[in-house]
Design goal:
The chain is an alpha/beta fold. The protein has three domains: 202 residues, Nucleotidyltransferase, domain 5 (2-Layer Sandwich); 79 residues, HRDC domain (DNA polymerase, domain 1, Orthogonal Bundle); 92 residues, Orthogonal Bundle (DNA polymerase, domain 1). Helices cover 52% and strands 8% of the residues. The strands form two sheets. It has a six-stranded mixed sheet with strand order 3-6-5-4-7-8, with helices on both faces. A two-stranded antiparallel sheet has the order 1-2. Strand 7, helix 4 and strand 8 form a beta-alpha-beta unit. Helix 10 runs antiparallel to helix 12 and helix 16 runs antiparallel to helix 18. The N terminus is likely disordered.
Length: 418
């Protein structure tokens, strides 16, 4: 691969430099795609893979570029909208180890085109387990390989056609170093006796359903908490629904059509005429006037609706920990004691506390603990929530002990000491 970037430190400089890269082409013809599949099949070792989307530009989260690297085969950049189905490629690589960085970001769009990994090495997650303080791809590559990766195109509109050569080089480099990075990171995990921990985490990512279905997605409108009154909330809902439908129709990120702040402003004011809506200064965005009839119809639908949203959302979300001391003092003591214990364990084995145990899991068992506190009951409760075995091994005993001590009264402590 002609993607080598070199560390300038070897030349007495203090920073890394990126070497020139040969021109990169995008495979967008079926015949070329099938030839690439044959070449990848003839390669050896794990598969470095990455995907680029157009988040913030397009409605869909589909992949607009998929990059593959394999030793003995080379680097291949595919145009998913042009190629369509990737089942032939999946047949070739499904049983190989796939290397991704921050796999949860890409697995959904890869599965959408028929790419289903069965073995995973996530270099971002692996870096967390290894205890690295910063885990972005550029930082991790520089740490292990002494190579600088420029990240100036990470937020680009990858639905652009044709894609600029500079973007393609950026995309190729993102994947070409993954195999080397996996080897270096794997050695560190092995030496720290964290291989099994990392593997459990990788397997957990593969088993996870990454598609989130929300009961009332319109409530995620930024600023909707400032909307008061049932009719106002109904209008906010209908404006969101209308914008979402139009965004899907034109495949554009909703916020690029009309920002959340504009919808919320209209829901608060409840303009009485289409002219008032058009004159509302806060109602902005490139589709705010061109689709005025659409937004006005949504307002009318909201005002006429008999399905009035509740101002209070009923869900299983726990109160924020800052109010626990007032709402549930015993749970507050349990949470604080367990957190302190978990922090010690985190520092001892150099794994971030949020990876040591999902914070929401700890909050839930602190708020509603098992009837009888024991290592076994804590393990069962955490396992039911989704904790992995290594997390139970590391945390269950210390959490149980912390809960018991937090529940003791001063008299109990005196009896224990005597």
């Amino acid at each position: 691969m002609n993607s080598v970037t070199e560390s300038a430190a070897s030349e007495g400089e203090s920073h890394a430099t990126q070497a020139p890269h040969e021109p990169v082409i995008v495979i967008d013809e079926r015949e070329d795609y099938l030839a690439a599949v044959e070449a990848i099949a003839a390669g050896n070792g794990p598969i470095g893979i990455d995907a680029e989307r157009a988040s913030g530009y397009r409605y869909s989260q589909r992949a607009y570029l998929i990059q593959i690297f394999r030793r003995g085969a080379g680097t291949f950049l595919f145009d998913p909208p042009a190629i369509g189905d990737f089942s032939e490629l999946n047949d070739v690589i499904a049983n190989e180890e796939w290397i991704l960085h921050a796999a949860t970001q890409d697995l959904t769009c890869l599965r959408e085109v028929g790419l289903y990994p069965t073995r995973l090495f996530d270099t971002e997650l692996g870096a967390r387990i290894a205890g690295l303080p910063r885990v972005g791809l550029g930082t991790v590559v520089e740490h292990f390989l002494g190579i600088h990766l420029a990240k100036e195109h990470s937020s680009a509109d990858w639905s652009t056609r044709p894609l600029p050569q500079a973007w393609l080089v950026y995309a190729a480099l993102d994947v070409e170093l993954l195999v080397d990075l996996r080897e270096a990171l794997g050695e560190l995990l092995d030496s720290a006796d964290k291989h099994d921990i990392a593997q459990q985490e990788f397997d957990s990512v593969l088993a996870r359903d990454l598609i989130i279905v929300r009961a009332e997605p319109w409530r995620r409108l930024s600023g909707v908490h400032s909307v008061r009154g049932g009719k106002n909330l109904a209008v906010a809902r209908e404006l969101w629904v209308a914008r979402d439908a139009y965004a899907q129709e034109v495949d554009t990120a909703p916020g690029r059509l009309v920002p959340d702040s504009a919808l919320v402003a209209a829901a608060r004011v409840l303009p009485e005429t289409k002219r008032q809506l058009s004159a509302l200064k806060e109602f902005s965005g490139r589709a705010s006037r061109t689709q005025l009839d659409r937004w006005w119809a949504a307002i009318q639908t909201g005002l006429a609706s008999t399905d009035i949203p509740s101002s209070r959302v009923v869900n299983d979300t726990l109160p924020p920990p800052r109010v626990w001391s007032e709402k549930n003092p015993e749970a507050d003591r349990r949470l604080k004691a367990a957190r302190a214990s978990m922090m010690e364990a985190s520092e001892e084995i150099s794994i971030p506390i949020e990876n040591l145990l999902t914070p929401d899991y700890l909050r839930r068992i602190a708020w509603t603990p098992p009837t009888e506190i024991s290592v076994e009951s804590i393990s069962d409760a955490l396992r039911e929530l989704g904790a992995r075995q290594w997390q139970l091994d590391v945390s269950a005993q210390s959490i149980a002990q912390a809960f018991v001590e937090a529940n003791q009264t001063p008299e109990d402590s005196d009896d224990t000491e005597s």
